[in-house]
Amino acid sequence: MALIVQKYGGSSVADAEKITKVARRIARTKNQGNQVVVVVSAMGDTTDELIELAYRISETPDNRELDVLLSTGEVVSSTLLAMALHHMGYPAISLSGAQAGIRTDSVYNRARILKVESRRVVKELERGNIVIVAGFQGITDEMDVTTLGRGGSDTTAVALAASLGAEVCQIYTDVEGVYDADPRLVPEARPLAEMGYEEMLELASYGANVLHPRAVELGELFNVPILVASSFTEKPGTLIHGGVSMEVREKVRGIAHNLDVAKITVIGVPDCPGIAASIFEPLARAGISVDTIVQNASIEKVTDLTFTVTTSQLSRAMEVVKPIAGSIGARDCVSDATLGTVSIIGTGMQNTPGYAARMFNALSEKGVNIQLITTSEVRITCIITEAKVKDAVRALHHAFEIEIEG
Amino acid sequence: MALIVQKYGGSSVADAEKITKVARRIARTKNQGNQVVVVVSAMGDTTDELIELAYRISETPDNRELDVLLSTGEVVSSTLLAMALHHMGYPAISLSGAQAGIRTDSVYNRARILKVESRRVVKELERGNIVIVAGFQGITDEMDVTTLGRGGSDTTAVALAASLGAEVCQIYTDVEGVYDADPRLVPEARPLAEMGYEEMLELASYGANVLHPRAVELGELFNVPILVASSFTEKPGTLIHGGVSMEVREKVRGIAHNLDVAKITVIGVPDCPGIAASIFEPLARAGISVDTIVQNASIEKVTDLTFTVTTSQLSRAMEVVKPIAGSIGARDCVSDATLGTVSIIGTGMQNTPGYAARMFNALSEKGVNIQLITTSEVRITCIITEAKVKDAVRALHHAFEIEIEG
């Protein structure tokens, strides 16, 4: 008897009818002789509606209270899903994050899971129950409710799968799996049958929103196979696991892109120790994540420092950086909010030279100018103007003739 | 520094604006130098909406799951109220029933409070917080959420007040206190300044919906003064406490009525031991509460047995009773769904004769026919036809010339 963890997103449980459909899918998994643990997100737009309600009361709602408020969304959907299973004659029980033993730190709104105390879940499985766990939430040592931030329910599911030693963690969503490029941009894009954790991590981090990087990291750490599939179709989906890298024939596995990119350049910075820290420490304190950082080669002890942030954080970042630029004697501080990234991703790339050159050529042929380049072992990312992202993704998908296995 | 427990009902926190108004009232109590614990119901019609959602999934939703689902309504309103207080600059924290230590039995949908473990509430008060507790809910020893059934939030408030040794438990609602008769029927009806627990218990049990009998019982048991007042006005309200009986000049303190009354008569029952049990045990098992029971004097070993149930439970009660009536050799079994009750209530009545006669006279003068009579030490109730209830209440209010003190 295998243990399977399934996660259903908000769009899969948006109304009573969809909840009943999800219950049928769960029942089928149970009928196949499996023990089933289900992690569920809040129904449809519930979370956004609760946030709106909070902001009608206060422009700066308290983080602790906001977490308690938001956590009710997943509790509601988990009870309704349990009721739907009962209605079909299946034993089921809903558990809150607290009851399921999701123990977190006390960083409200974006808590990290410290451990999973799965006694109650195990007990309910032994009683024959399908266990429905409210995703996105946990509890601190003080027994205060926290939420896990973006990708929270995916993370709950993978953490539970790891803790319970599940055979697979199935993430059900409204798309058919992980595509080799965004199908809205590339009509020929197709779902991948399988992916390695590292590739998936890069793809998730650089634009594919189907699965949150946190969940992928956790899956890699505990070697949990993750299946990403549609809750609306019977398509096989994409299996993310550790045994795939050696077998992939194609080196470039996917094209990621991101339109939410802005660039800040501090011009004429005196090139002396501590300057970088004097800029990036205040940004970190202000909660602004900096992605790429590039410092041009120093000429005559003066350098240009360029870094990227999300478009939504640009104005706050400029507020932080401008006074610092002045105080450290920089000549100017400029920004560009109309940027995007395109990335090619594939584990095989790390052992084979020439991928960067082929990427740059493909972009050049389409008249795409590259502003910044960053790389990891399994990824090459170019920062380009936002208006060219669509063309660039198509050109790269074509250039690397991505083949789908399986 | 006094400790005050306040409870706000669903209509008092129905939207963001009303929540802000309630926060102002709480802040004022805090400003007067008090420690404040607030118990809050779910916003407006939230509970009904959640029930509707559950029934869209299943006609027979599981009791445990229903309790978890419904409990989210009070969690939502408690967090929003805490946010509103933060917004005004007051330290506040919301606690679920579980966090506030409301420990109950495992009878879902209508759990009883076993004890209140108020450590966390006390700790938050000591930290200077206004503590907002989600009403209507508790937690079992297994850490499963329960709800307390009708009057649940009132009961939470009085239980917390008792456990914390609060100076007073203030129940804020949408009426100005406890009236000597229903003001919708009797325009001259006025709120009472004070009442004894027993009088209030009879009044609450026999038709005044302003405060649930459970909460009154608990208040009496632990001698917690309960103030019932409007959250929308500054009127003083009604104080229910133990020191009032000796001082009341008027003997009849209030007129209660109830339109939700139906009568079942089993005709020609053989008058032998065990017959009553054979009828009322199956009714109790079916969850049907029987109120008044009257058995006519036996003539020739045959008797008529009459009892009342709520109108909504009449058809189920008849389904239970009819086959039994047949099997015990009764001649027939008939029902009447168009009944009501009128009651006169007052602690002083128990020491003074003649109240029953005055009541029957007043009803007789208005042509009201009395079908059944029941009494307690502080109450006389007549069961009459529903169509005459309004006339009867007015006649009784006039006949006993109820005076309002204070």
Written description of the protein model:
2 copies of one chain form a homodimer. With 406 residues, chain A is of the alpha/beta class. Chain A folds into 2 domains: 3-174, Carbamate kinase (3-Layer(aba) Sandwich), CATH 3.40.1160.10; 255-399, VC0802-like (2-Layer Sandwich). The first copy, chain A, is built from 11 helices and 18 strands. Chain A has an 8-stranded mixed beta sheet with strand order 3-6-2-1-9-11-12-10, sandwiched between helices. In chain A, strands 14-15-13-16-18-17 form a 6-stranded antiparallel beta sheet. In chain A, strand 7 (137-139) and strand 8 (145-147) form a beta hairpin. The model of chain A has no long low-confidence stretch (mean pLDDT 90). Chain A binds chain B through residues 16, 19-20, 50, 53-54, 56-62, 64-66, 68-69, 71-72, 75-76, 78-80, 82-84, 86-87, 93-94, 96, 99, 120, 143-145, and chain B through 16, 19-20, 50, 53-54, 56-62, 64-66, 68-69, 71-72, 75-76, 78-80, 82-84, 86-87, 93-94, 96, 99, 120, 143-145.
